[in-house]
Amino acid sequence: MLVAQMRVTADVVAKNSYIAKSRASLEALKSADLLKSLNLNVLITGEIGVGKKTLAKYIYEDGYIVDGSNYKELTSAIGTNKRLIIKNFSQINNFAKIKDILNNSKNKIIATSSKAVDSKVEDEFFSLKINIPPLRDRLEDVRALSKKFFDEAREIFNDQSKEFNFNELKLDLSKNCYSLKKSIYRNYFKSEVTKNDIMEMMKNFLLHNIGGGDDYRELVYLFDIPLIESGFEKFGSQLAMSKAFGLNRNTLRKKINSYKVSYKLGEEKE
User: Fold this and answer.
1) What's residue 8's pLDDT?
2) Cβ within 8 Å of residue 115, ≥6 positions away
3) Cβ(156)–Cβ(120) under 8 Å?
4) Which of 57, 56, 69, 65 is nearest to 132 (CA)?
5) In a 3-state reduction of DSSP, which class is residue 18?
6) What are the pLDDT digits (tens) for 194-230?
7) CB–CB of 117/45 below 8 Å?
8) Mapping DSSP to helix (H, G, I), strand (E, B) and coil, where does residue 55 land?
9) DSSP symbol at 212
10) Do β-strands 108-113 and 83-87 pair in parallel, antiparallel, or remain unpaired?
11) 55-106 confidence digits (pLDDT tens)
12) Do 175 and 165 touch, CB atoms closer than 8 A?
């Protein structure tokens, strides 16, 4: 089985939502362009949210997507679709049977997997493998993807006046594109939210969480923790915070200590 390793250079590329600027992403896109005209079975690997399914859909625009963990649906899809995109390929529970069915049907497949696939299975099923690295190793792509998600948020909020400033964003790459998009939307929303919005959200949350008999004591952390964390960030010490809040320092210390373990409240900076 071949592993795609092609060197190309280019600027940001956007095709079928697959955006690339890093060398690794551009190599994957170059391989995908070649695969459009070839009848090869391909395995695309990488962590959750790196763009595996998006790249697969670029290669097989008309490919039918099926989950490998659903054996019944998978076997049915093989019988009715000539081009398949099998996600969660590693979760197939009977590789030998699926291989026989594919051989008889002569389907062409692109499979994606976030988990490791046995090397013997890889060699039996696929002629080519493409690995997409995580975003933390493709920092050139992060800015382009952030701009894409920012523009989407601006469209949703119907606000064309807000300017994209990459350096001001607090980004979460823990789940790659999934968490990046969520963090962009959260950043955008936080900059637009009003006191009334906060109170409305709190009311909706509390409506679904009150009724336990000791609600005030159990839920007061929703106010305490954001206040203390913002106090640490703005004032830097418990002394300065207690003065700004008009709160006795010992009372403040007790609150901080009570939340430190259970809610991982940050330490003061002094």
Assistant:
1) 39
2) 90, 91
3) no
4) 56
5) strand
6) 888 888 888 998 998 888 778 888 888 899 999 999 9
7) yes
8) helix
9) S
10) parallel
11) 999 999 989 999 999 999 999 999 899 899 999 999 999 999 999 999 888 8
12) no
Task: Let me know how long the chain is.
Answer: 270
Place of tokens 């692109």: 110
The 8 Å CB, 24+ separation contacts for 17-24 are 17/54, 18/51, 18/54, 18/55, 18/58, 19/141, 19/144, 19/145, 19/148, 20/141, 20/144, 21/140, 21/141, 21/143, 21/144, 22/138, 22/139, 22/140, 22/141, 24/132, 24/133, 24/137, 24/138
The token pair at 268 is 């003061």
Query: Distance between CA 260 and CA 224 in Å, rounded?
Result: 12
Pairing outcome for strands 18-20 and 108-113 = unpaired
- What is the side-by-side order of every strand in the sheet holding 42-45? 2-3, 128-131, 42-45, 108-113, 83-87, 64-67
Place of tokens 């070649």: 34
* Phi and psi at residue 19, to the nearest 5°: -110, 135
The token duo for 229 is 């964390």
Task: Write the CB contacts of 152 (distance below 8 Å, at least 6 apart in sequence).
Answer: 181
Residues 6+ apart with CB under 8 A from 263: 221, 225
Q: Can you spell out the DSSP letters for 78-119?
A: HHH-SEEEEESGGG-S-HHHHHHHHHHHT-EEEEEESS---H
- Asked if residue 267 lies in contact with residue 236, where contact means CB atoms within 8 angstroms, the answer is no
Half-sphere exposure of 243 (CA within 13 A, CB side): 6
**Residue whose entry in the numeric block shows the structure tokens 């997409």:** 132
